[in-house]
């Protein structure tokens, strides 16, 4: 049965294993239903996209790839469990996920702003989840309080993971969504520049700020309509203090919301920053100065109360945003009329998020098979068995206690005053690019060759290259050059290919596990980060196989090579003394 305005009611043909279907929420792009999965005996959420993806379209193939990636991410306790993904018989993409209690947008609307301690706990958990996603090269692109859900155990989980980049972007193009919330989007989005991992970090920091203050950063508390120029103008305003929140915590959020994407910490660094703040420092009621930074008269708003109530963020003039795109986006579907009631089930649906057991009695045969368009999604681990962050693991090691006694609290209080000031200054200085440099900073990082644990060897003496890495046949083509001269590439580690590699093309070598885990692993667990730490974010890492001539002569040595992210040539070595 078709619902009005392009909204599709889930059919028994497409979802034979789901019963008691009812609408939870409708949006311009998708509808979310609650249902009971018969075979598993559990409540689930079903999200169906309003658009139809043609069988051979690029959008459909991207959905398949992204759905598998998001399914693997479900193993992280900070990311919502995804059970099934696929297409309806009419071509609508869908996902079946765990059913949660509600969102932090709902919680803000009901209870007002959260405590600094609770926001810190949420930030550590979700930043850890975001770091895991970025290691798998998956972006979120739409982090906001409405996409932070509360699971059955009361813990935060990140939802709609990958759907924004999956359904609304093309590779290499910026994302400007009709359904986006400008209050949580970084500046580069409005300039139509690609917003990658730094954009996700900005959105998470803006979300945490909203949880603390009841409002997204910079946006005044009124209901005016904003044009694209109004929104861009807001980024020149300072991010205000929040009464009762320490400058240490606020300094870290501001560092993650700097307008320069390259100055923001990675998700892993942001997690570690938040995790390093002692509870006393995060929750200390630091008074706010009566004299605030000047605000543009047109944007002035009444002062907020100490624990302000949540109000929905304003939305920008979407048409003005879309007019700036290289090519126009499809017009969003109009708001649908009420959906038809679901077929009567064996029992009424309880309130959203209440646990319900499967029907009593002996187990019957498994439910009917799902639709043939289902995509394989890896099974997820039970979240109740996971300890998601290092802070939680430390607490568990102490028997579940936050502190070891009054003495520890006194010690924390003694050092809190020092770190409140020093921490904020250091965080902003370290991650906003505020430090001064007297020369090319690509060679300024300390050298610390620590790659043996990756089955690699250090490169001594320094080894540099110029030119394209591969030729027209995909064989290694870069030419060795003295590192004292201007060069494009420098090797920072070397390893040996397996003996069963048949050809030394870059494509074939890049498929080898040792190469994927080393040269092509720019995440927190890769050798580049092991050597450079925070400085690893300045570099793009690639693999340089042995030349065809050397390979035919028996050589299997490959090099992990890097160039600065800006692509500019450098002089000197950044990886050798």
From TrEMBL:
Residues 320-389 are annotated as: Disordered. SUPFAM superfamilies: Protein kinase-like (PK-like) (SSF56112). The chain crosses the membrane at residues 409-431. It holds the Pfam family Pkinase. Residues 18-299 form the Protein kinase domain. Its EC number is 2.7.11.1. It is an enzyme of class 2 (transferase). It comes from the Bacteria. InterPro entries: Kinase-like_dom_sf, Prot_kinase_dom, Ser/Thr_kinase_AS. This is non-specific serine/threonine protein kinase. It comes from Stackebrandtia nassauensis (strain DSM 44728 / CIP 108903 / NRRL B-16338 / NBRC 102104 / LLR-40K-21). The lineage of its organism: Bacteria, Bacillati, Actinomycetota, Actinomycetes, Glycomycetales.
């Amino acid at each position: 049965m078709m619902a009005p305005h392009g909204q599709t009611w889930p059919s028994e043909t497409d979802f034979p294993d789901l019963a008691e279907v009812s609408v939870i929420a409708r949006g311009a792009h998708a509808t979310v239903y609650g249902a009971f999965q018969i075979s598993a005996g559990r409540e689930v959420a079903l999200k169906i996209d309003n658009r139809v993806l043609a069988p051979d379209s690029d959008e459909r193939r991207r959905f398949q790839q992204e759905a598998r990636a998001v399914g693997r991410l479900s193993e992280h306790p900070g990311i919502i469990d995804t059970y099934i993904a696929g297409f309806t018989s009419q071509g609508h993409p869908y996902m079946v996920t765990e059913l949660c209690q509600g969102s932090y947008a709902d919680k803000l609307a009901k209870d007002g702003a959260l405590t600094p301690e609770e926001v810190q706990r949420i930030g550590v958990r979700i930043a850890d989840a975001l770091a895991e996603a970025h290691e798998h090269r998956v972006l979120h692109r739409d982090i906001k309080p409405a996409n932070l859900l509360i699971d059955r155990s009361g813990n935060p989980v990140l939802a709609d993971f990958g759907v924004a980049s999956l359904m609304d972007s093309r590779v290499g193009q910026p994302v400007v969504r009709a359904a986006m919330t400008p209050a949580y989007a970084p500046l580069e989005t409005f300039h139509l520049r690609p917003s990658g991992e730094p954009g996700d970090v900005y959105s998470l920091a803006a979300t945490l700020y909203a949880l603390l203050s009841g409002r997204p950063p910079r946006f005044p508390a009124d209901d005016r309509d904003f044009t694209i120029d109004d929104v861009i103008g807001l980024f020149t305003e300072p991010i205000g203090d929040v009464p009762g929140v320490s400058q240490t915590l606020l300094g870290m959020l501001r560092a993650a919301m700097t307008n320069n994407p390259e100055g923001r910490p990675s998700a892993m660094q942001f997690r570690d920053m938040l995790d390093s703040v002692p509870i006393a420092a995060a929750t200390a009621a630091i008074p706010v100065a009566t004299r605030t930074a000047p605000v543009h008269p047109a944007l002035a708003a009444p002062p907020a109360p100490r624990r302000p109530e949540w109000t929905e963020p304003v939305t920008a003039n979407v048409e003005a945003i879309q007019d700036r795109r290289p090519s126009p986006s499809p017009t969003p579907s109009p708001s649908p009329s009420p959906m038809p009631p679901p077929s009567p089930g064996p029992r009424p649906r309880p309130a959203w998020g209440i646990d319900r057991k499967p029907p009593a009695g002996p187990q019957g045969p498994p439910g009917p098979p799902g639709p043939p368009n289902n995509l394989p999604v890896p099974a997820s681990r039970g979240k109740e068995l996971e300890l998601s962050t290092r802070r939680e693991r430390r607490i568990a090691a102490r028997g579940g206690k936050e502190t070891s006694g009054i003495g520890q609290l006194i010690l924390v209080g003694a050092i809190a005053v020092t770190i409140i000031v020093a921490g904020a200054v250091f965080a902003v200085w370290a991650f906003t690019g505020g430090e001064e440099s007297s020369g090319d900073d690509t060679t300024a990082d300390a050298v610390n060759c620590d790659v043996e644990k990756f089955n690699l060897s250090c490169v001594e003496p320094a080894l540099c290259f110029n030119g394209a890495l591969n030729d027209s046949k995909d064989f290694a083509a870069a030419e060795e050059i003295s590192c004292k001269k201007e060069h494009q590439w420098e090797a920072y580690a070397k390893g040996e290919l397996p003996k069963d590699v048949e050809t030394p093309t870059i494509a074939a070598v890049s498929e080898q596990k040792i190469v994927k885990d080393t040269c092509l692993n720019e995440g927190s667990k890769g050798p580049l980060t092991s050597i450079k730490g925070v400085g690893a974010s300045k570099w793009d890492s690639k693999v340089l196989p042995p030349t065809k001539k050397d390979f035919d002569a028996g050589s299997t040595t490959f090099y992990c090579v890097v160039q600065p992210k800006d692509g500019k040539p450098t002089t000197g070595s950044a990886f050798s003394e």
